Amino acid sequence: MNKILPLSLIVLVVLVGVGLYLKTASRPVTTPTESPETSISPVALPVVSQSPHITTKPFPSPTPTPKATSSIQVIQRQVTPTPTPVPGEIQTHQVTIQNFTFSPSNLTVHKGDMVIFTNKDSSPHTATDIGGAWDSGSISSQPFTLDTANLQSKTYSYKCSFHPSMTGTLKVE
Q1: pLDDT single digits (tens) 109-152
Q2: Element (H, E) at 17
Q3: Within a domain: 134
């Protein structure tokens, strides 16, 4: 009787193994496609051990392979060329009022160009021609635009009426 027990265990192990084999063999066979992002994982197979039971060891799931990245950065810089004035074309010029100064303090424009005075100080200022050709009035948050179309071709000296030490010149050609 001692010899029958081990023999029946062997037969049982073989039958269970054949059953599992047939169960996995009856599944449709698919051919995996390889891609650089994934690695192929084989199907888990039964492992027969010396003990009278069968265990299976599953293989780990495929792990995506990270795509290679480059540490080199390409920096693109767009260069905007300074436009060349076309004769007869109206240009717009900026004069910034900041820290109680006009910048630029000396500006040359063509007759018909526009000059925009923008105040960036917390105090109000003016842009007033000393000869009386124009007066901006108080410039606070809204800029003042001077149209030079009606001005004579000459150099104008201007100041801030509130702060007379603030001066500038505007040459109209």
Answers
A1: 999 999 999 999 999 999 999 999 999 999 998 999 999 999 99
A2: helix 4-25
A3: yes
